[in-house]
Design brief:
2 copies of one chain form a homodimer. By secondary structure, the first copy, chain A, is α+β, with helices and mostly antiparallel strands. Chain A is 32% helix and 20% strand. In chain A, helix 12 packs antiparallel against helix 13. The longest helix of chain A is centred in the C-terminal third of the chain and has 21 residues. Chains A and B meet through helix 7 and helix 14 of A and helix 7 and helix 14 of B.
């Protein structure tokens, strides 16, 4: 095997050094130990094609690897797989300003793409906390979401074209710079969100949008969670162009304030529920008008609008640092779920009741992209006991929460995918028929089941 | 067969009357004669399921039928098929203002959905000329485009959930009101744009957007086609939020002016090239500022902004009535193609040269959604000769034009799909590998090839 790879890859494109095997054989999850056989760093699509074709012919399993920021284990290589890291394929072509699009290689870092697009007076709509590390190929493979989904959609909505290498080594060059093409089945879509199980994405053409005009940010405090969806409804029917609609509670806010010195709490009094709103305003006092409407309707009890960029940063900091701050509080069990927006109140009420009555040893911290019905559910062990007991108990709690989510037609994985970690949860969201169709689609693209095997199902 | 259908359908849900067979067995194309065996009008998803299951078990081919406004023959039933018309499944649920979405049955008329959404202070982004007749199930099955794609995307981009019945009769209830769901492969996408070959769509959940703020419309005249993409680049890099960027030439304009009395030409002088621009303005004089910038850069030679709704209607009328007006000029051969926006000039230049040198008996009328790289190519017989000669000659012209489109990485069908009419063109856009993958996907969903057989490939 190594001789073959060495026949077309340079020495620095092949590694079996232990530290590389560990680093490139994992993502951000810690449930499985990385144990790949070799890490390859192709520099061209042809390299990827040769590697895959060889592995396909020799029945060797392959795991594609991006920025390794995934939270479901989809990029884990625990079984002597060949890992293909796309990190040396990271070129970013200049923006096509006429077509409002950009062509990139799969290893390009999200933040670098954002910067390149901004240089051309346009805006790249995908944005989330790990943008400095996440590679666009991984974003596409996981259909990444983030803080601007409410306005721009998921990654799926900005992909115009893909180049993909199938496990057979065959190369699909799909759509490239074309915006409209209704000639037969769309073959780009299956690869988006398929967690590297159908093909290895090598290049992408992505949509850029106009720079948001006059963004305005505010933080509002509410007396009860029930008011949050009401605020959303009010903002929407009043015609505001929402760019973000985020939510957190005092426990998340307290975690940030006590762990991140640079972030300050903007209110004098303490409150329980918060919503952070960003709009693309049509006039300078849009957000102040909105605050007045919401106060008049008694949907908020306090509010502050950001007057400058450091205030914008501070308000967003309160929301964006919750995940990291909560992790510093001890053992944390995380889920990333979604329910229809109209079912949010029912979900939160029932989940709080479940945790408070049956799992009172835990502290529940909720936050997330509430405008999309997406809540990050964090369970923290108040007493910081034995980790294996914690894992066992939260596993049982998960089953009860997943049943609740199923009853509300929600998803057990809103953004993070299934990977290895959430395979057991899949049946709470997808029917047997759906899983059977997925497996048949997998067999169309990878009949020998060698590409990222064991992930999703 | 009829006895079985009569066991669960009422008399008015079954027709073998000749006029119905002709009406429901066709779309807007005239290349094939409709010849279905029976027309069924299910009222529930269960009806659709029973019909499909029966036909699947008895090896009977089925054609799903919507508003029959298609232009590629995808809804034609020329071979004694059972036609399922969704027209009696046309309910529209009230808008979910919190989630900003609407649930509809497949037979709901596009214009009715637009009206229902508007009543709730929101906006439904899908819009095109046949909105008064087109059913949403057909829009989804053909991934319909239209005049607002540049801002809101194709139909694909607004579908949140689908209910689909497979040929086996099995029902897929996909996603419903959920905005975010990354739990395994997305099974909604395969049905969008698959022209009724993979399943029968019975219900859909669709995204609504905020009402466009301050829309402004202008018509600009240019000296050469080369200036049109330059204008697009200018508008984009200046940060304007484009809602539409349309194009037509004097020949299209002349056709409208001479056939539609209510539409008037807004300029004193005659010009050759026109672009109609609609923006969502951030201030009242945005469009006037834009006109000044474009004039200063010598990209336009004349321009007018619409000052009221009747002027908006008149400018849009100039563009939207071209297709119909051109059809009144005699024998017309239509194509709906796309190229990357950056290749528009090359395409138009080469196509004009091809027609002027080799097909000078024809008149070339070009117009379309130029901001998406989408051009409607109309070939008109100047001498109005024998229709069969015209068809033969334009068929040869098509092959030459398709080669040109292929060389520019364009598509032979931007919006209208493949259906029956463009099957021969498919190979100019899709590779053998892609067509093979499509056929395998077809076999996953409809292994006996009974659903809308003979369409696409």
């Amino acid at each position: 095997m190594n001789t073959y790879f060495a026949s077309f890859l340079e020495a620095n494109q092949i590694s079996q050094v232990q530290s590389d095997l560990e680093e490139y054989g994992k993502d951000r999850t810690k449930m499985h130990a990385p144990d790949p056989s070799i890490i390859l760093f192709p520099k061209t699509t042809e390299h990827v094609s040769k590697i895959l074709s060889y592995c396909n012919n020799n029945n060797i399993s392959v795991v594609p690897s991006g920025g390794r920021t995934g939270l479901s284990g989809a990029a884990m290589a625990p079984n002597k797989e060949v890992v293909i890291s796309l990190s040396k394929m990271n070129s970013i072509a200049s923006v096509d300003s006429i077509g409002s699009l950009i062509e990139v290689e799969a290893g390009a870092i999200l933040e670098s793409i954002q910067a390149e697009v901004a240089k051309n007076g346009l805006y790249f709509p995908l944005d989330f906390a790990s943008k400095g590390t996440a590679q666009i190929g991984g974003c596409i493979s996981t259909n990444a979401g983030g803080v601007k989904v409410i306005k721009y959609g998921m990654t799926r909505d900005i992909v115009l074209g893909l180049e993909v290498v199938l496990m057979s080594g065959e190369i699909l060059d799909l759509n490239k710079k074309l915006i409209k093409d209704n000639s037969g089945y769309n073959l780009i879509q299956p690869f988006i969100g398929s967690e590297g199980t159908l093909g290895v994405i090598t290049k992408a053409t992505l949509k850029c949008v106009p720079k948001p005009s006059n963004p305005q940010v505010a933080l509002f405090a509410c007396e009860s969670f029930e008011q949050i969806p009401e605020i959303l409804k009010e903002v929407r029917t009043a015609g505001y162009d929402l760019a973000a609609f985020e939510f957190f509670t005092s426990s998340g806010k307290d975690a940030v304030i006590s762990h991140i010195n640079s972030i300050s709490y903007p209110f004098e009094e303490e409150y329980e529920f918060f919503t952070l709103i960003e709009i693309c305003a049509s006039k300078d006092d849009d957000m102040i008008d909105l605050m007045e409407i919401l106060a008049e309707k008694e949907l908020i009890i306090d509010g502050t609008t950001a007057e400058n960029s450091s205030e914008v940063e501070n308000l967003w900091g309160l929301r964006e640092n919750i995940s990291e701050s909560v992790s510093m509080m001890g053992n944390v069990h995380k889920n990333d779920i979604s329910v229809p927006v109209s079912k949010l109140i029912e979900f939160v009420t029932k989940l709080e009741k479940l945790v408070n009555t049956k799992y009172s040893q835990y502290h529940l911290v909720l936050f997330g992209h509430i405008g999309d019905g997406n809540i990050h559910v964090n369970i923290i062990d108040k007493e910081d006991r034995n980790i294996s007991d914690f894992k066992k108990e939260t596993h049982i709690l998960d089953q009860e929460m997943f049943e609740l989510i199923r009853s509300l037609n929600g998803s057990i994985s809103a953004e993070h995918g299934i990977g290895l970690l959430k395979k057991e949860g899949l049946k709470y969201r997808r029917t047997e028929l759906e899983i059977s169709l997925m497996k048949q689609i997998k067999a169309v693209f990878d009949p020998k089941n060698l590409l990222n095997p064991g992930k999703i199902f």
